[in-house]
Design brief:
By secondary structure, the chain is mainly beta. Helix content is about 5%, strand content about 25%.
Length: about 375
Amino acid sequence: MRLNRLALILTVVALALPACGDDDTPMAADAGRPPDAARLPDAMVPVGDVDDFGPCTDDSDCKEVDSDCRPIVFIGGEKQCIPSCAASTDCPFSTVCYKSSNAQLAFMKDHCWYSLCGEDFMGAAGATGGPCSLGEELGNPVSDQLPGFCLSIDDGRFGQCIEVGAVTEGNPCDFGDQTRDGLNCNGSSICIGMQGNPVGTCAGICNPANILTGTETGCTDVGSPAGQGCYDASNATYYEDAMGAIVMNRQTLGFCTEVTGCATIGPNTCPPDAMSMAQGCAVNNSLRPTGICAPGATGQLAFGAACPADPAADATECAAGSLCIGMSGMEKCTQICDRVAMGVTPVVNCTAPAACTQLLWDGGRDDTVGTPDDTLTADWGACQVAP
């Protein structure tokens, strides 16, 4: 499976955007349709079953009469049904009207798609994880740009500029269907909630990398809700490039919620919980050795001890700083370690012949283990001896 680098934007889109086509803004009835279809009344125009931003092969595949099947240069020319537009306000939430005269974007001109941001597009002025303007990278007039937040697809390189609103941290937001006139979080927060719930809460955006240094993450600033910590929702994603090399993207995202952020390496810094139960640092992301304090992340079994896959009590749980991993029936408490990354000296050094080995996190975008996009832990792993 070979994926174009920017095909990874689709993963982020699934998390950041509502189902496309939910915007009720009227659009030109026949804009961009083939001449024969344009002469028919709307009710007679043949339509397909592909929603906006879904894959297609021909205009007739598109469900919406004002959408066309166009090649998307950012995902290797794969075609999608995209709505026609005259201005960005015609487009669904978190998309922008492509007005650029760039020849490479000719097929997308006067149609809606996602806005890209970050250092690769905007230089030092448009960093991932910071404010952005939808359409700025296209050269759209300022009057046709929309305020946004640059959600990282690859830290320090590029991301998707997701549209923001005016709802402040701690207040309700539209978690399901998002529209431009709905309850949308401002640029310093992000809407979080339970899957399937239509309403969420705007949570402040924080810097999870600071958990490892013990510096301010942004969750205890003046004005932030009390008792909140930074939840590291970052991810490492992998894909195979055109040359067959496996490439990793670092996608950093943190938000403030009712947790205590912690490091999974080094001394256990987690305090007892409200019931005075001991806690350890439970891993919660594939990118860096950070997690959240939880009672189930500490027990009485030492490094190297045999452990059950489903422990029932502290006596059968691994000590803080270790994971119960291994072949079925042969699991052992294995020390969590941090891999040498970006020139940083590891906190945990494995004892030879063990080495800090990456762990399989999940099956990646295709949810299938054993393919090039499998997600592995990036900056951390476990002390294991090579077979």
